[in-house]
Amino acid sequence: MHRNHNAKTRLLYLFITLSFILLVFIVFFLIISDHFTKNLESLLKKEAAALGTAYYNSIELKQDDSEFINYKLKYLSDYFNAHTIITSAEGAVLLDSDSITSTKNCRYSSLKADKTGAYIHVSVPVISNAKVRYLVISHAPLNREDSSLLLVYKISFIALLMMLVCAFGYVMIYSYQTNKMIEALNKTSKEVTNGNFDSRIRHSYSGEFGELVRNMNEMAETLGKTEQTRRDFIANISHDFRSPLTSIKGFVTAILDGTIPCEKQSRYLNIVLEETERLTSLTNNLLLLSTMESDLCVLEKTKFDIHQIIKKILLQFDHEITVKGLSINLFFGASQYYVFADMHQIQRVLHNLIENALKFSFDGGELSIETVKLKNKIQITIADNGQGIPSEDLKNIWDRFHKADRSRGKDKKGLGLGLSIVKEILKAHEETIEVYSQENKGTKFVFTLTESTI
User: Fold this and answer.
1) C-alpha–C-alpha distance, residues 58 and 64, integer Å
2) What pLDDT was estimated at residue 147?
3) Half-sphere exposure of residue 305, counting CA atoms within 13 Å on the CB side?
4) Does residue 47 sit in helix, strand or coil?
5) Dist. CA 342–CA 353, nearest whole Å
6) pLDDT of 439-450, one tens digit each?
7) 18-56 pLDDT, tens digit each
8) Rounded to a whole number, what is the largest CA-CA distance in the chain?
9) Phi then psi for 223, rounded to 5 degrees?
10) Phi-psi bin for 430: left (phi > 0), alpha (psi -120 to 50), beta?
11) Which of 181, 189, 188, 179 shows the shortest CA–CA distance to 206?
12) Residue 417 contacts residue 331 (beta carbons within 8 Å)
């Protein structure tokens, strides 16, 4: 079926090419013929005019130009195969190239019927004192067998034939490459559809075909990353949901079968409550990220002091800060900076970034938070001097569910959604965030918020 399609395509290309070349040849043929016809007509008029002048001089001025007249008549007859006559103003034939004798009793109209077929007819008047004295009339056949004209046709035909061969060869090569590319696209698309996201089109193409191949390969690569992200998500979410569920099931079972005595049940029920809260937090994060990515989140922007929110979030981590013995450095550019944003969502951004900084800070380290005004923006910087992020992981930290082996922290908790949520919230606010990190030297997150003008 595919071969039949290729054959039909090549036949179509051949038909189009032949039609185009034939059209070009016909147009060229008409142009050349018209050129030769006009050139022949111009030469005939020139020779007829010279003949008429010589005849007038011979008759009216009594000059002896008979040899020149006979030469011109013979030249017109031999070179142009023309039949030339000279008539009076009334139409009486005075001189005929066929006999080169006076034929005063013959009329021009009787000679006209002797010429049949395609020919050129020129009539040149001989004028004296604003009066037509004589007419020089010449008939020359359009001889298609003229050697110069045939040579031009031959050269043109050979050139066009070579063009046809080259054009058809190019079309065949183009058709072959196109079919090979389509076959490669079909093969790759089928493999990608069947789940082989490592399939690539290995051939290199230029132009639009090359762009199509690159897009196909990029699509396969993107789908492969998406599939890997899906698998990572399933693995991560299975781990993060299984651990608390296992704990909850174990403690509840122990309470029900009496393994845990009544006086200790309150303690284990609190553990169960913490695990359910952890599950609730994970679920809420998943729902929030899904809402953000689908552009369904409606921001409730208000005016608020960013410094108060930073201090509020730091109080929430007072216990962790104390346990690690961290030093907190606040560098505020002014006593108050008012921003216009969704306060609840910005609290989540600050919470996730500060939590991330505390998690990877060394004991006894420093956490620095700086704010500065840049035009109509407030820039917030959160920096730690902890273990930093490896360069190979730095480009992936915004990906959903991405976690390096050590990124779970010592407690092995977290679904790897914190930074993805931060990115999506700031994207919804049309703000930017950058990260700078060096291993064992620390990490710095820098983001902006729009300053309130009300």
Assistant:
1) 6
2) 59
3) 9
4) helix
5) 17
6) 888 999 999 999
7) 777 777 777 777 777 777 778 888 888 888 888 888 888
8) 156
9) -65, -35
10) left
11) 181
12) no
